[in-house]
Amino acid sequence: MKRILVIEDDVSLREFMIKYFLEKEGYQVITAENGEIGLDKAKQDLPDLIICDIMMPKMNGYEVIQALHEYQPTASIPFIFLTAMSDRANIRDGMNLGADDFLTKPFVSQELISAVNKRLEKIHNANSRANAKLKTLRDKITSVLPHEFRTPLSTILSASGILIDEVETIDKDELREMLGYINTSAKRLNRLIENYLLYISLENNNTSDEMRNEIMLCTEDHVRECISNQVKKYNRVQDIVWHTNMPSGNARIAMSESYFNKILEEIADNCCKFSDAGTPITISVNAENDRLSFEFTDQGLGMTKEQIAQIGAFMQFNREVREQQGSGFGLTLTKRIIEIHKSTFSIESIVGTQTIVRFSVPIAQ
């Protein structure tokens, strides 16, 4: 049974109209005669929806909704203002404070019931979508992460086990080879964990305002070095074809260096994973008006329109065609970071021929 809190100083309206009609519809109704009492009951009972008058003694409706939004457990409760005022400015002020709807006195019972049902249905639908998204994410985690964790861990455990067992007899070349396996696998595992934590942070909107508003000096040397360091892991440095047109070789962009590096690394990593060594990876950088634009083109497997549309965390494609070392985070992280910074991102692909990934970031004034 959905619980509704009604905060209204007019006893006849509160008890004999609003409460009566809502209970008749099957709702559990909690009432409060002023804003102070209503705020306390909201924090105590955490209702599914709040109906609140604006003009009340002690604490008006504007003060109530502001206090509710400052308290995390009540911040997302749907809120309907109840007012005898028809002034558009007052309605606009209430909506700016976070109200979901308005009921203007006098109203008929059907208007009340319709407003409540509509608001609760909207919350139900939003929760259903969130639960479906969570289930999809959980299923992907269940199917992908165990493999991605076990693969590098198996290498680390087996190589270190050999070193322990044969520490007295192993020669330097074998020792160096084993340590290389361990180091490579540890880096792969570390990257997986870092990407996972970054993904969770981005999804929970934990990015600080300072980081969102950070400015970095993007130089051509920085771009080349960041990408080269990534493609070296695949011995693909000689496959990179550069086309750059940056103002004086540098530009100030509205993005933190760590986020910018992550975008370059993940896109370059995908280009290497899904194209054959010896085929070109073309990287173009251009300053256009107030934006710095990047384009990565590889001559690899390509993606279908459906696959492009399904890009998400833990989504992997063509694993049966090519062993894919990765959790599917790369393009999802890239896309999410770019969205946060109000930048643009697109993928154009021809299956079996090429993939073009484009993104742009604002040039800071």
What do you see in this structure?
Strands 2-1-3-4-5 form a 5-stranded parallel sheet, with helices on both faces. Strands 7-9-10-12-11 form a 5-stranded mixed sheet. Helix content is 50%, strand content 19%. Helix 2 (35-45) packs parallel to helix 3 and helix 8 packs across helix 9. The chain has 11 helices and 12 strands. With 365 residues, it is of the alpha/beta class. It has helices spanning 11-24, 35-45, 61-70, 88-96, 109-165, 172-203, 209-212, 220-231, 257-273, 305-309, 330-340; strands at residues 3-7, 28-32, 49-53, 79-83, 101-104, 216-219, 240-245, 250-253, 281-288, 291-298, 344-350, 354-362.
Compact description:
With 365 residues, the chain is of the alpha/beta class. It has helices at residues 11-24, 35-45, 61-70, 88-96, 109-165, 172-203, 209-212, 220-231, 257-273, 305-309, 330-340, and strands at residues 3-7, 28-32, 49-53, 79-83, 101-104, 216-219, 240-245, 250-253, 281-288, 291-298, 344-350, 354-362.
Based on the model shown, name its key terms.
alpha/beta, Rossmann fold, Heat Shock Protein 90, 3 domains, 5-stranded mixed sheet, 12 strands
